[in-house]
Amino acid sequence: MECNNLQFVTDLQEWGLELSELQTTQLEQYYEMLVEKNKVMNLTAITEYDDVLKKHFLDSLALNQLVKLQGKKYRVLDMGTGAGFPGLPLKIMFPELEVTLMDSLNKRIVFLQDVIEKLGLTGIKAVHGRAEEAALKPEYREKFDFCVSRAVARLVSLSEFCIPFVKQGGFFIPYKSGEVEEEVNEAKHAVRELGAEYRKTYFYTLPNSDIERTLIYIEKVKTTPKKYPRAGGKPLKQPLLVNTFHKQ
User: 142-197, pLDDT tens digit by residue?
Assistant: First the structure.
């Protein structure tokens, strides 16, 4: 089965990636299942074939531009995975990865479990859970080499949800679009409080487009204090900003 989009193949080649026949089939099946399920459930506003390949699949694979994933058995958590991005395309392209997809909406998890089964993927699981609760479980807390997320929350809040899952020496790498400098500066104190350090912002443009994106590279340097993440929606309602630390 050949990929029906030669542009996608060219884009991947520009990033030094090539699809096997199996990977091509898996991505095609994933796309078909995504648009079919999207008719009855809100998974994505992007449904055109070419757009999904570029803006979802290709963008998900940008992590490999920052961290070489080929042949690696890294444990990766995709927090707030939604329709499976970036975790599923990463697993398909780099099958050695051990991937956990986590989302708070069970309907999405049921869909993702169906995709995993239909595509015959192993070493990947879809878990229904909220970050505040899952981060307290010993099987998840500080167990991952990487936590990635394309969730739309501001970095200061997203950091509190995600950093507790990353093991010391691992990385939290959120995918962002638009201007991020303000978000990064706003989050630096929270990141330190959570046991991590901001390292760099990686800017990239999706091949053969003017679509600009960023990956933010945050390293876990010590254990996250047990009180994080806070429950009751506090990471969103009362983010760990500089002027809130003295109130705790």
Answer: 999 999 999 889 999 999 999 999 999 999 999 999 889 999 999 999 999 999 99
Tokens coding 163: 């950093």
220 bridge partner residues: 196
Side-chain-facing half-sphere of 38: CA atoms under 13 Å: 16
Rg over alpha carbons for the chain, rounded to the nearest Å, is 18
Strand order through the sheet with 212-220? 124-128, 98-103, 75-79, 144-149, 166-177, 212-220, 196-205
> What is the sign, positive or negative, of the torsion defined by CA atoms of 177, 96, 2, 34?
negative
Distance CA 17, CA 64 (A): 9
Residue entry with tokens 């939604």: 82
Question: What domains can you pick out in the chain, each with its CATH number?
Answer: 6-247 (3.40.50.150)
